């Protein structure tokens, strides 16, 4: 492997013009296709096979007017006034007239006729039903809905928009994301000691992300995917793209610190050694993300594959484009010598990784106290994860200044906490005799009304041929309350019995029920998913390091990072701590697919740091057979780079914490805290301490297994002798 990558790196440096031209062409094609032939991204998280999704599909087929997108207009009277007054009625009438004229609206319900007015007559709502799903309603129609509220505002009423149609689009590229990239550049400049060298990883990462994300945008024309898929691909692709280039550039400049090192040979050796680590790390990330498909949830599968594809592009960029650009830069990448007396050894040579050596020696000198402090601290952070609750985001989690959040609060104020947790019971009487259908619906309604946790039961709504009836159920508790979850299960067990006996089918659905179903589906898929990536890690790391204990230690450290990260996410987003700092609109359950996504992404990134750090330890041990010195050497040589890589990833992910979308916000926070904990606590602290305790046994491999495991030569032993400076050019 090292020999092939060495040849690839030298070839890319020699044919640098062609390599650069190919990547520029790929970027141009991807941008052209992604911007002109892109598909429509969805905001719905549909999961085939769950009861709520089956009900939604049934409504689309047999009762489309009940399955279309809904815009809910919520009114509140001025303080001391009522909506039932003449002024309020005129304002509501004028507003709803404009709403009914919005293209795509089939009907608008009048609050005074439907009775959707609060008991104190200060809050009311009207639903505008569209003839198409919410995700298909164009932005122009949404803009006209906003304009339609002007009549109410002019009359002194408060008017806000809720419903499925009003979900705001996900946008990136704001100040926070830009600040994250700027911080990444500063970290690169400090780490590499050169503005020119710092700019190279950013440039190659942008090219790789451009190719990857624009390709994903183009593929959305043929594959249904959520807008979160492209954001995740952007986050992961940008972070790993910068890091992978950093590892190669850093290794190249470290080698060029030797005045006799030939530039082109150094490019080849950096591609062979650091490139081997990049390849292993990239494959691990790709397979971990692709393993999200094991959950059996289409939108999660697409998210994982989209991000995995972008990571693959980042690996290819690191192995081809980065060596090509290093070839263009030539001698300009060679570190400058420090003047005598400015620090370093004799001759003005700088000593790299001085703090890393000190840190490594500290870890190897006091391994047991270090392990106790780190493990206890991580377990303390993990405690809140025991109360983890999963769900789908509601308008409550939208920014507090948004109309969606305000409408949620008004509805809760006027109609109780359960109003935003409305459930739907769909009774399919296709196989039931027509004369029995009405009676069955009455039995269902009677059972529902008897339940102590039901606040209101809406009148039944039947489709044109009378085969499908929908009942709206308003719980007494909110969407995030455990009592609401219990109610859903109880209704499915008890309220559907009359329909089942008659040969029909009944479903309990709605957004709240969908959140419960998706969470249950993901929880059942989690053990298999974890098993897949754990086995994967053991195999790949065993091949890379020819060791049994190193992979086991890596997996245990990863599980510790996951537990602590989930605990921090629960503490902030579910408990509501630090909500002002992170702009969390409301304490609410964690997005249902976040744990699976966090495990997949963080696993790949954790293995990145594991490979980059331990590969230098393995390399030193392989050559010198001194276990303790190998640990210190690995931290000395890779500690600074791993630190920079973690800070860069945290900066990139951290920029997304302040995105207005609650899903992106929570993903950004989870990945940021996960990367920081795994890199600084586990990889740079726990790993050296454990390896110091294990000594030479850490690098042992049973003889029978040693024969079975292929030798990938991650240390670069098979590379040719170093040529003298300038000899590489002469050879070409």
Question: What oligomerization state is this entry in?
Answer: single chain
Biggest β-sheet strands, sense, barrel: 5 strands, antiparallel
Number of strands: 11
What structural category do the secondary elements indicate? Answer: alpha+beta
Shape: elongated
Mean pLDDT metric: 85
The number of helical runs is 27
How far the N terminus sits from the C terminus, by CA atoms, comes to 22 Å
Low-confidence stretches: 340-351
- Helix coverage percent of residues? 55-70%
**What is the C-alpha radius of gyration, as a whole number of Å?**
30 Å
Into which percentage range does the β-strand content fall? 5-15%
Description:
- The radius of gyration is 30 Å and the shape is elongated.
- The two termini are 22 Å apart.
- The protein is 63% helix and 7% strand.
- The longest helix has 35 residues, at 511-545.
- Residues 340-351 have low confidence and may be disordered.
- It has helices spanning 2-14, 16-36, 51-62, 64-67, 86-100, 111-114, 139-148, 150-154, 175-192, 195-219, 227-256, 263-290, 298-329, 354-365, 367-382, 403-415, 434-450, 482-494, 497-501, 511-545, 549-574, 579-582, 594-624, 627-654, 662-694, 703-708, 727-731; strands spanning 70-76, 105-108, 123-130, 158-162, 390-391, 423-428, 454-457, 461-462, 468-475, 505-509, 590-591.
- Strands 6, 7, 8, 9 and 10 form a 5-stranded antiparallel β-sheet that branches.
- Strand 8 (461-462) and strand 9 (468-475) form a beta hairpin.
- It is an alpha+beta fold and 732 residues long.
- The chain contains 27 helices and 11 strands.
- Helix 1 (2-14) packs across helix 2.
């Amino acid at each position: 492997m090292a020999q092939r990558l060495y040849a690839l790196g030298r070839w890319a440096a020699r044919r640098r013009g062609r390599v650069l031209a190919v990547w520029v062409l790929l970027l141009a094609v991807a941008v052209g296709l992604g911007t002109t032939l892109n598909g429509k991204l969805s905001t719905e998280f549909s999961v085939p096979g769950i009861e709520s999704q089956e009900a939604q599909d049934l409504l689309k087929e047999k009762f489309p007017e009940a399955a279309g997108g809904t815009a809910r207009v919520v009114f509140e009277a001025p303080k001391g006034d009522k909506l039932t007054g003449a002024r309020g009625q005129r304002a509501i009438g004028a507003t709803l007239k404009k709403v009914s004229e919005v293209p795509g609206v089939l009907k608008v319900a009048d609050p005074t006729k439907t009775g959707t007015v609060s008991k104190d007559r200060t809050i009311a709502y009207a639903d505008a039903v569209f003839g198409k799903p919410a995700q298909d309603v164009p932005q122009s129609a949404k803009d006209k809905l906003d304009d339609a509220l002007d009549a109410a505002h002019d009359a002194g009423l408060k008017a806000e928009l809720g419903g499925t149609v009003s979900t705001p689009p996900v946008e990136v590229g704001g100040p926070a994301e830009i600040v994250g990239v700027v911080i990444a550049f500063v970290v690169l400049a400090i780490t590499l000691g050169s503005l020119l060298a710092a700019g190279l990883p950013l440039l190659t990462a942008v090219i790789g992300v451009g190719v990857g994300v624009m390709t994903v945008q183009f593929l959305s024309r043929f594959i249904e995917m959520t807008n979160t898929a492209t954001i995740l691909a952007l986050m992961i692709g940008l972070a790993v793209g910068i890091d992978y280039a950093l590892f190669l550039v850093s290794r190249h400049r470290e080698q060029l610190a030797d005045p006799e090192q030939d530039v082109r040979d150094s490019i080849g050796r950096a591609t062979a050694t650091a490139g081997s680590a990049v390849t292993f790390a990239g494959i691990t990330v790709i397979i971990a993300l692709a393993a999200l498909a094991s959950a059996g949830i289409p939108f999660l599968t697409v998210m994982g594959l989209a991000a995995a594809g972008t990571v693959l592009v980042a690996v290819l960029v690191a192995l081809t484009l980065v060596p090509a650009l290093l070839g263009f830069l030539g001698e300009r990448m060679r570190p400058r010598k420090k003047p005598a007396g400015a620090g370093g050894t004799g001759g003005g040579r700088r000593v790299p990784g001085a703090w890393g050596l000190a840190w490594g020696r500290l870890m190897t000198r006091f391994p047991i106290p270090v392990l106790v402090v780190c493990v206890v601290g991580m377990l303390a952070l993990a405690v809140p994860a025991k109360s983890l609750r999963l769900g789908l985001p509601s308008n409550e989690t939208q920014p507090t200044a948004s109309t969606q959040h305000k409408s949620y609060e008004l509805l809760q104020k006027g109609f109780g906490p359960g109003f935003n947790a409305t459930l739907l019971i769909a009774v399919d009487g296709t196989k039931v005799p027509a004369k029995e259908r009405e009676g069955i619906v009455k039995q269902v309604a009677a059972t529902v009304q008897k339940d102590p946790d039901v606040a209101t039961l809406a009148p039944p709504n039947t489709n044109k041929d009378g085969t499908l009836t929908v009942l709206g159920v308003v719980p007494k508790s909110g969407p995030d309350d455990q009592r609401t979850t219990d109610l859903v299960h109880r209704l499915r067990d008890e309220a559907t019995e009359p329909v089942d006996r008659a040969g029909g089918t009944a479903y309990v659905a709605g957004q709240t029920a969908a959140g419960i179903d998706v969470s249950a589906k993901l929880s059942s898929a989690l053990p298999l998913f974890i098993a897949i990536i754990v086995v994967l890690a053991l195999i790949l790391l065993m091949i890379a390091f020819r060791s049994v204990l190193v992979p086991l230690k890596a997996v245990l450290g990863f599980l510790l990072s996951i537990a602590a990260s989930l605990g921090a996410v629960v503490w902030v987003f579910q408990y509501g701590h630090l909500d002002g700092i992170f702009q969390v609109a409301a304490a609410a359950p964690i997005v249902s697919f976040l744990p699976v996504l966090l495990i997949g992404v963080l696993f790949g990134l954790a293995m990145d740091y594991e490979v980059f750090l331990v590969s230098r330890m393995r390399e030193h041990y392989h050559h010198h057979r001194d276990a303790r010195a190998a640990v210190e050497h690995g931290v000395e040589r890779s500690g600074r780079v791993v630190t920079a890589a973690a800070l860069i990833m945290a900066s990139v992910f951290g920029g997304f914490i302040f995105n207005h979308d609650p899903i992106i916000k929570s993903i950004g926070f989870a990945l940021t805290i996960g990367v920081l904990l795994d890199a600084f606590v586990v990889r740079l602290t726990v790993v050296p301490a454990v390896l110091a305790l294990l000594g030479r046994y850490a690098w042992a491999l049973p003889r029978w297994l040693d024969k079975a495991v292929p030798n990938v030569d991650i240390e670069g032993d098979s590379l040719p002798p170093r040529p003298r400076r300038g000899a590489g050019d002469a050879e070409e």
